[in-house]
Amino acid sequence: MKCFFPVLSCLAVLGVVSAQWQVTVQEGPLYRTEGSHITIWCNVSGYQGRSVQNFQWSIYLPSAPEREVQIVSTTDSSFPYAIYTQRVRSGKIYVERVQENSALLHITDLQARDVGEYECHTPSPDDQFFGSYSAKMNLVVIPDTLQTTAIPQTLHKVEQDPLELSCEVATETFQHSHLSVSWLRQRGSEKSVEVISLSRDFVLHSSSEYAQRQSLGEVRLDKLGRTTFRLTVFHLQPSDQGEFYCEATEWIQDPDGSWYAMTRKRSEGTVVNVQPTDKEFAVRLETEKRLYTVGEPAEFRCILEAQSIPDRYFAISWAFNSSLIASVGPNAVPVLNSEFAHREARGQLKVAKESDSVFVLKIYHLRQEDSGKYNCRVTEQEKTVTGKFIDKESKRPKNIPIIVLPLKSSISMEVASNASVILEGENLHFSCSIRTAGRQQGRFSVIWQLVDRQNRRSNIMWLDRDGTVQPGASYWERSSFGGVQMEQVQPNSFILGIFNSRKEDEGQYECHVTEWVRAVDGEWQIVGERRASTPVSITALETGFAVTAISRTPGVTYSESFDLQCIIKPHYPARVPVSVTWRFQPVGTVEFHDLVTFTRDGGVQWGDRSSSFRTRTAIEKAESSNNVRLSISRASDTEAGKYQCVAELWRKNYNNTWTRLAERTSNLLEIRVLQPVTKLQVSKSKRTLTLVENRPIQLNCSVKSQTSQNSHFAVLWYVHKPSDADGKLILKTTHNSAFEYGTYAEEEGLRGRLQFERHVSGGLFSLTVQRAEVSDSGSYYCHVEEWLLSPNYAWYKLAEEVSGRTEVTVKQPDSRLKLSQAQGNLSVLETQQVQLECTVLNRTSTASQLVVEWFVWKPNQPEQETVARLSREATFHYGEQAAKNNLKGRLHLESPSLGVYRLFIQNVAVQDSGTYNCRVEEWLSSPSGMWYKRAEDTSGQTAVTVMRPDAALQVDTVVPNTTVAEKAAFQLDCSIVSRSSQDSHFAVAWYSLRTKAAGQRGSPGLQEEEEEGEEEEEDPAERTALLSVGPDAVFGPEGGPWEGRLRFQRLSPLLYRLTVLQASPRDTGNYSCRVEEWLPSPQKEWYRLTEEESAPIGIRVLDTSSTLQSMICSNDALFYFIFFYPFPIFGILIITILLVRFKSRNSSKNSDGKNGVPLLWIKEPHLNYSPTCLEPPVLSIHPGAID
C-alpha cells in the first residue's frame, strides 16, 4: 500500500490510468401521486471515448425485489418487458435526452403498480469496466386525494361592487405535504392572470396586475376553517371581468430538499361580468380675459365635467409656466408651494373648491411678473379600504396665457336690470359694472338715481369711496324695512335692489360712478366720472283684473260629482294673494249665502249655512294660478241651484300691512241634478248544455254594461220546465249579497247542491248546481236588478233585465260495460279444482258497483241455473244450483285485480259438468245517493267436463293349478297388480266354476269361439260363490258346500287370500276371484268404477280311498314305469303340440279368446304332486289346459 499511490500517480501522469465511470440518479425515495407525470434524472460522468451515452431503465417490484423488469431503453426498442411494451409504444413512458450524458425518464400517467425500485443503467462501450454503471432509487406511488371544489355560477356586478368567492381545498395524503392555493382570472383565450395566491410557505403574492391592489388591501385571500379559501375583491373594475377559478397544488419535499408539485387541481369557474360605470371625465380651464392691468384681480376656474362627481374622488393641481402653484386633494385642503404660500398668507392669492365640479385660483392683485401660462390638472383617485388614495386617470386642458399690463387710467361702465317691464310687486335688480382698461388705480363712489316720467330726479342710495352706503331721503323708510338695498359685490360691480315694487317706482334708473385715486400726498382725487341708465316700466296689479265662473257639467245625475271653476285673470304669481268666496242660491230661493272662502293666506272658511256641503265638497286652489275649483261629490237635489264666486285682490306693503286693491264678482252658474239613465245590459245569448248526471251545472249570468261602477245587483235565478207555465225561483241574491232560497230549491231539495259565486270582474255571476240529476233538466235564466246608492245613502232600484236562457239536459252516463267474450273448454278429473274467470274489460264509471252472477246450463235442462252471486256490497250468495249439487263449501271467490273475478269450484264431481258463464250488472249512484242499475253484460261460455279417473285395475292372471290331498287345505289367492287410484277400495268375491254338461272333461272353463264373426255364446259354466267381501269390509254369506271351511286373509292392501279347509274330492274344479274397484265421489259417496276377474285356478283333490295310488307307490318298478319314463315322451309331445299351435295362430286372424280378444292369462299344463309321498311328480294334463 505504501507504493500504491506513488505508482498510481506515475501511471496517471503517463496517461495509463483511465477516469472512473460514475452513474448518479435522482435521490429517493420519491413520493408521487397516481395519474401524475413524473421525471427521474440520470447522469453519467467519468467516461472517455464517445460523448453520447445510452440509458436503460428497469424496475424491481416489491412483489419480486430480486427480479429485474426492463422498462425502456434509448437504443433497443425490444428492451421493454411485455407489461410495459404498450405504454412505451404509446409514448406514455419514454426517455428524454437532456444532454449527451444526461437523460430524464418520463412516466406521463403514473399508476399504482409503478411503485418499486428503479435502476438506471448505462452500457459501457469499452471492454474494460471501471466504476459504477448503474444507480438505483425508490419510487412510492400514493393516491391522488387532492380535491378542489367551487360552486360554478355567473355573477353580474357593477363597477366598484365587492366580490367574494369561496373554494374548498382538501387532501387526505398521509405523507407530510404542503398546499398552495391560487385564485386566477381567465378571459377568453388570453393567458390566465394570477389574482392572488397563498404559497406553500404561507406567503401571499399577486401578479403585477393585482400587486398594488393587494398591497392596499383591495384584494384579499382569507382562510376560513381548515379547507375554505375566500377571495375578496373590494372594488371591482371593468378589467376584472372574466372567469375566476381556484387552483390548488400539493407539494412534497424530495430528499434533495427541493419541493415538488405532486398534483394540481383546479375548480370549476365563476363567470363575473362587470358593468362599467361612465368614468370618463373632461376638464376645461376658464378665465374672464387674457389681458390685465397691474393690480387687477384674476380668476381661473378649472371646471370638471363628469358623472356622479360626489361619489368619486378627484385631486387638482395648479401650475404656472409648468411650475406647481398648489394642489388640492379629495379632502379639499389646498397645499401651496413656498412662494405662493406667502402671497396666500397676505391675502393676495386664494386656491379654493367652489363646488364639486369647480375649482378656483384667484389672484387678487396681479403683478406684471404674473404674466405667463396657467393650467390645472385633474387626477381621479380611488380610495382603498385602508383609507389611502391611489391615482388612476389624469387629464389637463390647454394652457391659458395672460398678459399683465402696467396701470392706465380709463374706465367704462354698463347698467343692466333684470327686467324692463315688470308687474307691480316684483323685485328690481340693477347692476352697475365698471370696466377698466388696466389695473384699477383707486376707488369708486356710486350714486343710484331715479328720474320719473315728470323728469324729477331723486337719489335712491349712494356708496362713497370708503364703502359707506346711505339711502336717499324719500327711500329712508323703505330702506329701514329692507325694501331698498345696495351692495358692492365686486370691486367694480355694484348692485341696487328694489323689493316689492310699486307703481311709483316706474322711471329711468341711472348709475353715476366717480373714480378716485390717491395722490402722492395721500389725498383722494377724482380721476373721472361716468353715467349710465336703463328704463323700467311697472304694470299696476289691478290692471285687467277679472273673474269668471265656469262648469263643464251644468247637468249631473244622482251620486255624480261636478266641478265649479273660478278663473282669475290675469295670471298672477303666487306672491300676489287673491281671496275667493263661493256663494250659493238654492233652487226656489232668492238669496245668496256664502258657502266657502279661500282666504289670501291659503286658509279655508266655511259659511254658516254650508253644513250640508262640508262632507261632500272639496275646495282646491291651483298652485300655478289663483283659480279656485269647487268640487261637489254625490250630487243630490240639495246641491241644485245657482253658484257665483267673488274675488278680492290684495297687496302686501313693505311694512307688512295689507291693502285690498280690487274686488270682482263672476257670472252666475246654474247646476241641475238629474237621475241617472240606466245602462244595464244583460247577456241575451242562448246556450244548450248537455251533461252527464253527477256533474256540475255551470250557469252564468253576465252583466255586459252597468250604469255605475258602484252599482249593486240583485240576481234571481229561475228554471222553467215544459210542464210549468212560468219559471220557478231557485235562488235570489240581494244587492247587499244576502241569499234567499226559492220555492223550487226547497221543494226539490237543492239547498245543499247550490253554489253561487260573483267573479272578480264584478259583472259575472255564476250559479252551480252540484251533482246534477236527470230531474234538473230544464230552461234556466237569471233576472238582474240594478241598485244604486242615493246621495243620502239609501239604496234604490234603478232598472231590471232578464238574461237569455240556458237549455240544460242531464242524462245518465252512456253504458260502456263490456265483458270478455272468450270461449273455453275445460276437462278435469274428479276432486280437482276448476277456475272460472269473469273479466270486466270496460265499465261506465270507476265509481260504479258491480253485481257478478255465475250460471250453469246442463244438458237436458230447459234453462240455466244460478251458481253463485256477488252483490254490489261484496256479499257472496249461493245459487239454487249450489244447493242441488252440494256446492256450498266448495265454491271460492277472489278478485286479484280490479275488474277480474275468479270463481273456484273445488273438489269437482261429475255432476258439476256443464256450460258456465257470468253476467255482470253495473250499478251507479245517483246524485241523491240512490243506486240504480245502468247496464249488464254476459261473458263468453266455458264448457266444463268432469271425468272420473280411467280404470287401471288389473288382477294377476298367472295363477298355478294345485293338487291337494283330501282333508288338506288349499289356498285361493287374489292379487291386484294395479289399481286406478290410491283411494280405491276393493270388493272381492271367489267363485267355483263347474260345467253344466256331464260329458265334458275336466273342470269347466272358458270356451273358444267356433268361427270368426260368430256371436258370443252363453257361458256353459255354473258359478257358485264361495265368499264375498264388500268394499266396506263387510262379509257376505259363505257358499253352502264350503260353509264353515273358509278362512279369509288380507295379507296386504293388494293381496287377498281365501283358504279352504278340509278339502274333499267334491272341491275339485276351477276357481276364480272377481275384484270390484270402488272410489269415493267428491260428495263422499262410493261408486263402482270397474271390475276384473282373475284366471281360473285349477284345484284337484285326491281321493284317499283308491288303492291304485298305494300300489304304484309301493312298487318301485311300476312307479318309474308310470312316472319317470313317460315324462320325456310327454315333454316331446307337448313341445310338438305347442309348435303346431304357434304356427296356426300366425295364420289365423282370430286369437285365443272370444270375439278375437286375447286371453288375460296363459294356459299351461297343470302339474299335480302327490300329497301322500315324496316321489317324483306325476304329470297330468287336465281338460282345458291345452286347446
UniProtKB/TrEMBL annotation:
It is found in: Membrane. Residues 999-1022 are annotated as: Disordered. Residues 1-19 form the signal peptide. GO terms for biological process: lacrimal gland development. Keywords: Disulfide bond, Glycoprotein, Immunoglobulin domain, Membrane, Repeat, Signal, Transmembrane, Transmembrane helix. Residues 1007-1020 have a biased composition (Acidic residues). This is Immunoglobulin superfamily member 3. It comes from Loxodonta africana.
